[in-house]
Amino acid sequence: MSRPQDPPRSFFPFGNPFRNISPKGTKLSPQLLAVICAFEASLEERLKNLIPKSKDEVLSFSWMTLAMQALRESHNGIKTLMTDLELPVHDWDEKWIDVYLDISVKLLDICIAFSSELSRLNQGHLLLQCTLHHLSSSSSDQFIRACSLLDGWRQHISSKNPRIEKCGSILDNLVGSSDMPKVKKSDKGKVLMQAIYGVKALTVFVCSVFATAFSGSTKNLMDLDVADVYSWAPTFKGLQNLVNEEIKVRFSNGKFTVLYELEAVDSSVRELYPTIRGVVDVIETESHAKIVDKLGGAAENFSQGLDLLAKEVDGFFQVVMSGRDALLSSLRSGATVNDRILGGNRDAQVVN
């Protein structure tokens, strides 16, 4: 599944768009400053929660689920920020709207690709379940069938998903559009663009890690250079360096897959496979039973982690879709963004 010989992809050939926004020199009111500081503090806390306690956590389904949860919460945070700002749609610059809609449509495409890959992996799990069913019998015919199923499982898992293969170009476009529009007259607009920038950096990082893991190639792995002027930048860089370096190490080892739970399943499959290729005296031993149990446990952990991750990806999809729909509805009706997104908040304090 992995191809360690893939050369690293070169990014930012025309300069680094992630340096084009800088809060230096920005003079905001105390109220607006409090809003953006609170938002960025929450963003940094989510980044800290993603720092793995051990390298084994990197690309485990539990870490990936946490990462997708961080994305969902951060994008929800943008909705809450819009409410705090009470920024009506008619006050939005057309460029801001274009940025928001452009980001959202790319994220929806990526979510669809990730969901299709998780569905494909789940189909592979069904092959494992059938294998374990046949291994519960002592019939040599059933062992032959189990061998065939394991061959099918490895072939299925090793195959490429065309939708995942397209994620690289989507991410390139997402990074290429990271040059946020300049905001000259609206302080609220500056706060909104600065917040979107931070969430976008997190989003590109997480999605590039997912695309790398699912594609089996480091060509989708990105190293984003975020300006140090942001309070969350040091935490972001530390997280990105740790995760990306561990991923590169795993690819350099030439593993079948860099996904932790999937590697555990494959390890059990490789251990079990020789014992069911017609070696009758071996398959009847207690050792064989332990190997089968080991595969069963690994397959169960894989399935449970897969289900939780799939739910989070779907949840993130729904957040992006609802935000996009809310903005479009507000544009048609002339209502405020927050009226549509969060059902309105007449008692919310106006931030000047």
TrEMBL record:
It comes from the Eukaryota. PANTHER family: BPS1-LIKE PROTEIN (PTHR31509). This is Protein BPS1, chloroplastic-like. It comes from Cicer arietinum (Chickpea).
